[in-house]
Amino acid sequence: VSFPLQEVVSEESEEESNGVNLMEFSDEILLHILSYVPCTDLVLNVRRTCRKLATLCLDKSLTHTVLLQKDYKVNKDKVKQLMRDIGKEIYQLNMAGCYWLPSSTIDHVTRCKNLVKLNLSGCHITSLRLSKMLSTLQHLRSLAIDVNPGFDASQLSSECKATLSRVSELKQTLYTPSYGVVPCCTSLEKLLLYFEILDRSREGFMLSGQLMVGESNVPHYQNLRVFYARLAPGYVNQEVVRLYLAVLSDRTPENLHAFLISAPGSFAETGATKNLLDSMARNVRLDALQLPKAWINGSGLLQHLKFNNPFYFSFSRCTLSGGHLIQRVINGGKDLKSLTSLNLSGCIHCLAPESLFRKADDDIDSSILESLVASCCNLRHLNLSAAHHHSSESIGNHLCQLLSRLKHLLSLALPVCSITDVAANVEKPPTASNLVPQTFGRKVRIGIQTYPRNLGDQANQKIESSVFWALMGSLRFLETLEIIGSSFSSAMPRNEPAIRNSLPPCARAQGVGDSEVAAISQLTYLQSLTLAQLPNILTGSGLVSIGLQCQHLRTLSLANLGMMGKVVYMSALMDMLKHCKCLRDLRLEQPYFCAGAQFFQALSHCSSLQRLCIVSRSGTLQSDAVMSFMANCLEVIMCHMFMGESLTVCKNLQQSIVRSFQADRPALNVVIFPLLHEDLTEVIRDVPMRHLDEITLFKSRVAEEPPNLWW
């Protein structure tokens, strides 16, 4: 709710004179309005305005579930008062990512005697505090925690272990080799594991994947229905997850229906994992599946696995061919109306009949995509990024035309080269802008074609006839869209130095630019947009159209648009930002980006902005402009800038921001650091996982996990 309810009540007489009085609305309508107000505001502020609101704010529909995970203004005192006032009424409490709260805050959760679901991922908590808290939560059935260095399961009391024995859902993020509380959870039905263990300690010592002394207890998987593991890069993470899988390989749970392992890079299959997969093929029927690419490539596994009513498949980075996809997964066109999420990111041959003699950039077989679309007609999330999906010249068989039949899509990720019109691409000779090398450094001055500045002019150029324009027009309810160059790689990988050079864009993508971006403005309900490596951006005029038409846009990520030696779209970006009133997250990655006074003045129009990340090789910034922006935009709690400035400039600015704004913004997280500095990876490891995973690191997020994996 954008208006303070206190003012509404205090101006009641004025409202009555105008014939409108909020307090005359029915309780049902008022409860619906109040459901959009953060619980801390309801309990600590709004309910003190009048008797009616005092009663409504404590209604069970508003206090049953308390969400603090993105309430960046909440502090320890507010949590303490909240738990004191309504602790006994809370059944579900989500404090995920509240990294700014001191560990002593967790002590107040003990007032919530009736808690059934509790999410403390990203919160600071010790073994002793966890033991004390869980000892009082006898009704708890769902728990999410972090396991940090120093965790000691032997410090858990018998009462705590009794509570854990009744927990059926556990989400555990590991920052150290450990079983955590898994051995205590003897009734597990859902287990989610996030492995974030670094290969080296801060002191530079190599870590081992062996578990700590006293952690030889065996996990209990006999009732397991969902097993999910996501690994960050690193050998230690692979070692530890194998220890978790070893028990599964001995005896596969009969009720297992979702088995998902997300592992970057190479994660080799072993004898134990092969036994596990063979056992799964014999004994279970799955509804969701994701495996490391090495476990699928070259094996006949998919031919033997049995599926029930699958809702999620991920074959990310696998060499699975389209022929195998149709025959083994879709079963030659079998009805898969239950499938709602499909991730084929980096699956370079998934739309080709075979992969043996095929080049990665050969044309796709439209009949395979047609079978996929027909069988999986209820798809809501589809990821086809990180591959060259080139359509042939056959009329009516373009990838965009076939995807337009998926009327239920909510999120979609495509490679840039897949959205270009084949005929236009063939007939149009290379323009001067196409011939400019996509490299860094000084550019030769060339003539630039004049592009339209608004949507009306573009319409006059008949861009509505393009297949991508038609696709955007047919997916009117799309909320998330990613258009990413097939060869794009971010300058900020996870645990490595910054990448200095990037591969050139695909030849088929050379013509994708302003008109295609303008087509996106048809998506009225768009909430999240990612554009990366669109080489033919000349003015960025399409961005202005998006700013004007997509009024629900909350997340925007732009990377390497147009020529790499100059930010050609800066003027259009600043015009766009003036219209983005709902924008909360902005990520910009572009060489030579100038974060100056004009940019930050335009960005100040984004009154809802909370998180800003700029990654720019040889980029510059104006410290005074940054400080002024932070003073004007009171909601901003994250400012990450990795530029070309000196370490001294970066440190001074970071310290100034923290010193000026930390007191009023408890969740403030500021990292300003030279992009190419050798200590960048050490700085990155201190960034809260919430920000690192959601915005700072670039990645495709469409169908990354099954929908509703965790609340």
TrEMBL record:
PROSITE patterns: FBOX. GO terms for cellular component: SCF ubiquitin ligase complex. Residues 19-66 form the F-box domain. Pfam families: F-box-like, LRR_FBXL18. One of its GO terms (biological process) is SCF-dependent proteasomal ubiquitin-dependent protein catabolic process. InterPro entries: F-box-like_dom_sf, F-box_dom, FBXL18_F-box, FBXL18_LRR, LRR_dom_sf. This is FXL18 protein. It comes from Thinocorus orbignyianus. The lineage of its organism: Eukaryota, Metazoa, Chordata, Craniata, Vertebrata.
